Amino acid sequence: SIVHFFVSMSVVCTLLKKPGSLTSITDNFITCRDVLSHEFKFATRLSVEDHIIKAVDYLTQQNVIIRSSSGISISPENIWVINLFAAQIRPFIETLWITIRFIDERMTKPMDDRLLISELMHTGHELFLLEQIRYKDSITKVGLENALKALISYNVLLVDEQVGGSFKRRKIYHKSDTSNAIQNLKAALQLLI
User: The pTM is what?
Assistant: First the structure.
């Protein structure tokens, strides 16, 4: 997918839509990079600061943003450019949002991987119909599986493997007892939503 070539620019544009300084964009970029690490491989040849400066410089040269002593503002006639770049990562963010909402609000007992993916797909379709997510592309099996990996890395979900019939291994997911894990991930996602 072409979004992999623009992931840093997409994150920067998403963060530019919220008021903040270059320092806060850098701090928030690191958080967003961590949240999206199961979907994207971020370039490491340059430092985070250099990636952000490169993106901001490009957007400034294209008259999309205006840098001044009071901060960075988006040129009203070119906000569409910011929205276009930001939209590239939106389906991935929505996939994470579907997953965290289901785990937090609906998951009451341990579930095997097939049932959990099915329930996540159902929840995604409900949220799409309720217009709480924008992109139908947010509801894919592969995307939801990657979102589960992110939730495991944030200690929101725990996974055990069981040997079932015919020696097939099944993953059993259950909520972590870590009380602030869901809130931490939701706070990180709020930077991108």
Answer: 0.85
